[in-house]
Amino acid sequence: MATKHEQILQYIDKLPIGSKISVRQIAKDLDVSEGTAYRAIKEAETQGYVSTIERVGTVRIEKKQKENIERLTFAEVVNIVDGHVLGGREGLHKTLNKFVIGAMQLEAMMRYIDAGSLLLVGNRFQAHKIALQQGAAVLITGGFDTSEEIKQLADRLALPIISSSYDTFTVASMINRAIYDRLIKKEIVMVEDILKPLAETPVLLASDPVAKWHQYTELYHETRFPVVDEQMRLIGIVTSKDIIGHDQTALVEKVMTKNPITSSPRVSVASSAHTMVWEGIELLPVVDNGRKLVGVLSRNDVLKALQYTAKQPQMSETFPNLIMSHFREERQGEDLVYTGEVTPQMTNHLGTMASGIMTTVMAEVGCNLLRNHRRADMVPENITVYFLKPVQMESKIHVKPRLLDISRRFGKVEVSVYQGELLVGQAMVSAQIIDR
Question: How many beta carbons lie within 10 A of that of residue 86, not counting itself?
Fold first, then answer.
């Protein structure tokens, strides 16, 4: 039987897109406490089919698939631009396909507008009206209002008309940035994106005999299986090591490993990879908040996902890569040296290189050296900074890594940073190695 938390999630999932969600109303309808209702709504928001909009409330939205996660809903646009909704609240859950800047004659402007667009424009009432009639939402910049007739039209068509105090250029930049951040987020692969779902996962019950494990190994060519109870909640995992020395009539619950390490669906694959390497795990069960099994993650799934992520062009726009783009790699004899200049963006309020930037440079250089020795992915595990000295803006620095130790799963590097002949920073970087 489903728990109250699960019942509320199922109830929310069945609500029509665009429905308003109230903690008090759900508590009343399902006869649960407001605290239980609140926690379930927050869980639904985490899972992506509920959105909370300032001055509007919590709304049931369409859950985004991985392939279109870079698109924004109009509700999210309201939050991004600090706007307020003048009309068409019922359409806030809809997704915008593109935005159009209305900096042209009305006739020319309309050639670019179609259903699903968002028109960014000032106080041009006629443009507001025609855009709505063509199926586009409107974002009025400069903090301007619109007419009551247009607000009523927006309500009738369920197309949002939003007002923001920012100018058009700023609004366009904010939306562009949000879309690009989504694109990066799209390629930060989560466990839920690559796990083998429960429908495809063979499981054992605690009451099953060990003989069933032997049947499963022949049938599925696997040796590791999660163990669940009657409600599909994870209670253990059984592997070939657990089976050794036990009779085939023994019960699985007597030989299984209890309380196995698990993952949540909303954890990044990189984080799960670190756990699997550190703990020596080949199969990681994935459970929801109620310990209900939703699937499993294998070592091969993780490696394929990390290889795919590394090939995505937008991943070069993350902060570590942007920082390292200012450094060039040189070989001095048998040693690698990274040379770069401290740009204004790397400094703190005193005009010296920020400690976080210095630490990032040392961590990246250390991992790069390990990659040169082993064709593998690196997950930094520990950075011990011995000391840091102030480095002025526009100073040229040289970063020199030195390999201390490397094994099949672990590497250790000492990284020294020089400004001329002066040692200005030193750290030891330890990393887990994940073979490709």
Answer: 22
Compute the distance between CA of residue 5 and CA of residue 16 in angstroms, rounded to an integer: 20
**For residues 60-76, average pLDDT:** 65
Mean pLDDT score of the chain, rounded to an integer?
85
Per-residue pLDDT of 130-170, as tens digits, reads 999 999 999 999 999 999 999 999 999 999 999 999 999 89
Percentage helix, strand, coil for the chain under 3-state DSSP, each rounded to 5: 40, 30, 30
From first CA to last CA, the distance across the chain in angstroms is 42
Q: Is the pLDDT of residue 93 over 60?
A: yes
- Say if residue 434's pLDDT is above 80: no
Amino acid (1-letter code) at residue 142 = G
Residue 49 CA to residue 330 CA, distance in Å, equals 49
- Superfamily holding 66-187: HprK N-terminal domain-like (3.40.1390.20)
Burial of 50-77, coded b for 16+ CB within 10 Å and e otherwise, reads bbebeebebbbbeebeeeeebebbbbbb
**CATH match of 4-60 with 1.10.10.10:** yes
Residue 435 confidence (pLDDT): 59
**pLDDT-above-90 percentage for the chain:** 37
Residues 192-307, CATH architecture: Roll (3.10)
Spatial contact of 74 and 18, defined as CB atoms under 8 Å apart? no
Burial of 382 (0-12, 13-18, 19+ CB in 10 A): exposed
Instruction: Please give the structure tokens belonging to residue 256.
Output: 């299984």
Tokens of 40: 């379930």
Q: How far is CA 108 from CA 100, 105, 142, in A?
A: 12, 5, 22
Two tokens at 179?
Answer: 């879309």
